[in-house]
């Protein structure tokens, strides 16, 4: 008798397993740890900040801020800073959501964290959360002469593409997120769960997916 396929549970990272935008907070940390980087960040903000909210220019804005944050750093230095930042950032963990993730692991499910947070930070945060062996699909950076730069995204519909690229059949069994940005992921999930969504994101999701979306109570362990 053939063995049934393992169920697949997909989790977002930011504001799902840990509070806050991990990479944005890390970038802020890098930008303000030295005065010259902070000065460049402040001077460039009127140009780069509005570009973050326009899909066509978002990558350019992220690349500009990332250059200011990482210029002069080797790849090893950047990774080391990410690991040190992750140590403190993991204290912002959302324990009930992590408990839910571990329930999936205990049940033998395939658990995948799919996040717009870039490696190496995503991997470092997951290791600090006690999840070193969980599969991680994250945005990718590339090191060049001018520092780090975006190489491959993992946001919105890109998450679904990255899951396919990893050989994961759709639909997945479970998806956990807090954000309407992940509607493409929720659409390809059989069971959909929201972790501490804002009212705006919850309403946007339920307007598109009125059925089979469960908001988890994270005030107590499930």
Automatic annotation (TrEMBL):
InterPro entries in the cross-refs: HAD-like_sf, HAD_sf
Domain of life: Bacteria
Pfam families: HAD (PF12710)
Name by which UniProt lists this protein: HAD-IB family phosphatase
Organism: Plantactinospora alkalitolerans
């Amino acid at each position: 008798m053939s063995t049934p396929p393992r169920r697949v549970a997909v989790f977002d990272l930011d504001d799902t397993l840990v509070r806050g935008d991990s990479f944005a907070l890390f970038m802020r940390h890098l930008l303000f740890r030295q005065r010259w980087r902070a000065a460049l960040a402040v001077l460039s903000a009127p140009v780069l900040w509005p570009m973050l909210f326009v899909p066509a220019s978002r990558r350019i804005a992220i690349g500009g801020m990332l250059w200011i944050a990482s210029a002069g750093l080797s790849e090893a230095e950047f990774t080391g800073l990410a690991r040190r930042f992750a140590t403190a950032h993991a204290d912002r963990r959302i324990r009930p959501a992590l408990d839910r993730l571990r329930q999936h692991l205990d049940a033998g499910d395939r658990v995948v964290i799919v996040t717009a947070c870039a490696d190496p930070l995503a991997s470092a945060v997951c290791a600090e959360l006690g999840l070193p062996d969980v599969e991680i699909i994250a945005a990718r950076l590339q090191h060049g002469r001018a520092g780090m730069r975006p190489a491959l995204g993992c946001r919105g519909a890109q998450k679904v593409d990255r899951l396919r690229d990893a050989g994961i059949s759709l639909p997945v069994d479970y998806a956990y997120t807090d954000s309407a940005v992940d509607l493409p992921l929720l659409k390809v999930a059989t069971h959909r769960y929201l972790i501490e969504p804002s009212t705006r994101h919850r309403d946007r999701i339920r307007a598109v997916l009125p059925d089979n979306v469960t908001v988890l109570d994270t005030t107590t362990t499930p």
